[in-house]
Design a protein that fits this description.
Strand content: 25-35%
Shape: globular
Number of helices: 3
Helix content: 25-40%
Radius of gyration: 12 Å
Mean pLDDT: 93
Number of strands: 5
Structural class: alpha+beta
Strand order of the largest sheet: 1-5-4-3-2
Largest sheet: 5 strands, mixed
Length: about 90
Amino acid sequence: MKIIVKGTFDRDIDKAHSHELRLALDTKITQIERAKTISQVTGIKLLEGYSHHYRIVVKSTNHSYRIGAIVRNQTIWLVRFLPRRIIYKSFP
């Protein structure tokens, strides 16, 4: 899949200081790049009430984060990367 990274996603990554969390995020982004369809990405779920907005789970030992993404055809926009308890308030 083609990945487009928004500025808000980059800023959210800069705030995530855990090395383990960044490794988990790198693994998830690699999985997204290699996926031929959205169904091959693990931990993805369509947000209720939306047709293109998804959340993708990224977990490390001490952290549970979500990627807020928009998927259309073979392109995925990575919009936000926030803790589980915060993302649903600010995305979409």
